[in-house]
Specification:
- The complex is a heterodimer of chains A (308) and B (264).
- By secondary structure, chain A is mostly helical.
- Chain A folds into two domains: 1-81; 90-301, MetI-like (MetI-like fold).
- In chain A, 82% of the residues lie in helices and 0% in strands.
- Chain A has 13 helices and no strands.
- Chain A has helices at 2-28, 36-40, 42-76, 85-97, 110-141, 143-156, 164-172, 175-200, 204-213, 217-255, 260-269, 273-301, 303-306.
- In chain A, helix 5 packs parallel to helix 8 (175-200).
- The radius of gyration of chain A is 26 Å and the shape is globular.
- By secondary structure, chain B is an alpha/beta fold.
- Chain B is built from eight helices and ten strands.
- Chain B has helices at 47-55, 94-105, 112-125, 141-154, 171-188, 199-205, 234-237, 241-257; strands spanning 5-16, 19-31, 36-40, 62-67, 70-72, 79-82, 159-163, 191-196, 208-212, 220-225.
- In chain B, helix 5 (171-188) links the parallel strand 7 (159-163) and strand 8 (191-196).
- Chain B starts with a strand and ends in a 7-residue tail after the last helix.
- Classes of the chains: A mainly alpha (308), B alpha/beta (264).
- Chain A binds chain B through residues 203, 205-206, 208-209, 211-215, 219, 223-224, 227-228, 230, 302, 304-305, 307-308, and chain B through 55-57, 74-77, 79-81, 83, 85, 87, 89-92, 100-101, 104-105, 135-137, 155.
Chain lengths: 308, 264
């Protein structure tokens, strides 16, 4: 979110700069004003944009470099329990350059592990989104449903994701559906709760408009409820995707099979600490991308609603 | 005697727990077709409640609303409301907001092309055709009210209900919009019921001004006929004897006989 705001701010700065340089031209001739600033300022603009990008890129690069240096310095000493970054890269070079190898069983490249985990998340999260929005709508719309279901939700949502795993293993008798169920049950609570809040917060004005127009229940749901609650729903969806990704690693450690979670656990069992670190980097990056993806979708879908 | 719109002996009580507040007490008002009636009173006197009752958004405790000899007790497009805070749907464009109403009200009676034309016609009527693709967040407060007005007019209501439509606007925009409403009323001959707290606005626009006493248990204190010829021009009226007389009557009612008593 902060990133997006910063981009907007830098764009604004640029446009201000452009208009300033355009002013002298305006006094020279009014006719060429429309086109002239663009051409005249082309190089300036390129520099300005490059400068803006550099301003955004330099700080993280510097900080990352410093952190790596510190890490290298601390773990270089003999007796260090964790490998320094240079060692990590050297040890895992094979995994980094070839993420696609497949030697059967669980001896596969990181791409296959990550995609197996992502598939489970996609499944569980998709189920959670549909069920969560539906239940959230019910709870938000009906006082009776809210009073009946809310206490149950409030208690169940505090149960840690992994605590569901033994129970789902007992129910499904298989690792795959159990892992998916854990994702589902982890992601669903924020989606339900945020959807319900969104529905409950639909302004009375919109309900009045719907009443005057005599919209039926279906029309009200599609034309008023969903768009009005969309910002809240997407907040829930965004929290949900983050939690799913948190839960999948832990769940896979216990269920085994192909997946990034079990990859980490396997590496620990064979004392390949460097592989663990590499896997963590990937987990972090993918978690970040998932979050940004949902945020981007939310931005597109709610572009009108948010700016009221 | 049958009126076009009759508000018939309405009482309204709000109950919260065991606490009961009487807001309106025995309000009766008849409005003729094509008439422009304003309701004026201090804030908290139940003006908006009365309008919501006519709109069908608030149920009555006693009495009823009769429109063209039929009782109405639920909301409907025959009593379109222009809400105080415009109530446009922010995710729809200006066009989309009006089209939503047109599509719903004329789903059976007009073809697709006719509905589009009718939407544009009403947007042009309030001079908002140029901004049809803008979203409510991108237009000014006055423009939002114009779109709200277009949406209400597009429903072809029997009665147009205006709930302090100009309340949130600055004086210049308000004057401009008042002129537009007068012109539209002139052209279409709508029956209008308007809530206001602005004396000049009431006198300028109305055929009759209904003055309400202070709540709780507010009722109609006085009804004033404004017999100024139409079309009215605000500049010529500024010195008009009849205009000043009406204005004085309303002011006297509001500030002498029914002075607003601040709740301690």
């Amino acid at each position: 979110m902060h990133g997006l705001i910063r981009i907007k701010a830098s764009k604004m700065n640029m446009s201000v700069r452009e208009t300033k340089t355009a002013e002298p031209l305006a006094s020279a001739s009014a006719k060429i004003l429309a086109l002239a600033p663009r051409r005249a300022n082309f190089t300036t603009r390129v520099f300005a944009r490059a400068g803006a990008i550099a301003m955004r890129l330099v700080p993280p690069v510097v900080v990352i470099a410093l952190v790596l240096l510190l890490w290298e310095f601390l773990c270089r000493k003999s007796g260090a329990t964790l490998p320094p970054p240079s060692r990590v890269v050297k040890d895992t070079w094979e995994l980094i350059v070839d993420p696609f190898f497949d030697r059967g069983g669980i001896d596969k490249g990181l791409f296959w592990h990550l995609s197996a985990s992502l598939q489970r998340v996609a499944f569980g999260y998709a189920l959670a989104s549909v069920a969560g929005v539906a239940l959230g709508t019910l709870v938000g719309q009906s006082v009776w449903a809210m009073r009946g279901l809310d206490p149950i939700f409030q208690v169940l949502r505090t149960v840690p994701p992994l605590a569901w795993l033994p129970l789902s293993l007992a129910a499904f008798r298989d690792g795959q559906p159990s892992a998916i169920f854990v994702i589902f049950i982890t992601a669903i609570w924020p989606i339900i709760i945020n959807t319900a809040v969104g529905i409950r917060n639909i302004p009375q004005d919109y309900r009045n408009v719907a009443a005057v127009l005599r919209l039926n229940h279906f029309e009200f749901f599609v034309k008023i409820m969903v768009p009005a609650a969309a910002p809240y729903i997407f907040t829930g969806l965004r929290i949900g995707i983050g939690l799913s990704w948190l839960a999948i690693v832990a769940a896979e450690m216990l269920t085994g099979g192909v997946g990034i979670g079990f990859f980490i656990w396997d590496a620990w069992n064979s004392s390949h600490i460097s592989e663990i670190i590499l896997a963590l980097v990937y987990v972090g990056l993918i978690g970040f991308m998932l979050d940004r993806m949902v945020a981007a979708i939310a931005n597109i879908v709610t572009r009108g609603t948010a700016a009221n | 005697m049958s009126h076009y719109l009759l508000i018939d002996h309405i009482d309204k009580k709000f109950t919260r727990g065991s606490h009961e507040t009487e807001v309106l007490k025995d309000v009766t008002l008849g409005i003729e077709q094509g008439e422009y009636v304003s309701i004026i009173g201090h804030s908290g006197c139940g003006k908006t409640t009365l309008l919501n009752i006519v709109a069908g958004l608030t149920p009555v405790s006693r009495g009823g609303v009769i429109l063209e000899n039929r009782e109405v007790n639920e909301p409907g497009p025959d009593r379109a409301v222009v809400f105080q805070n415009h109530s446009l749907l922010p995710w729809l464009t200006v066009y989309g907001n009006v089209k939503l109403a047109v599509d719903k009200v004329f789903s059976a009676s007009k073809s697709r092309a006719e509905r589009h034309a009718w939407t544009m016609h009403n947007l042009d009527l309030v001079q908002m055709g140029h901004a049809k693709d803008k979203r409510p967040a991108e237009i000014s407060g006055g423009m939002k009210q114009r779109v709200g007005l277009a949406r209400a007019l597009a429903m072809q209501p029997k009665v147009l209900l205006l709930d302090e439509p100009f309340g949130a606007l600055d004086a210049l925009t308000r004057a401009h919009l008042q002129d537009s409403v007068m012109a539209i009323h002139e052209k279409l001959g709508n029956t209008v019921l308007m809530i206001t707290h602005d004396v000049d606005e009431a006198v300028l626009l109305s055929d009759r001004i209904v003055m309400m006493t202070n709540g709780p248990a507010a009722c109609i204190g006085e009804v004033l006929d404004v017999s100024l010829a139409r079309p009215r021009k605000r500049l010529t009226l500024a010195g008009d004897a009849e205009y000043l007389k009406c204005r004085k009557r309303v002011l006297e009612f509001l500030y002498e006989r029914h002075r607003f008593v601040e709740a301690a």
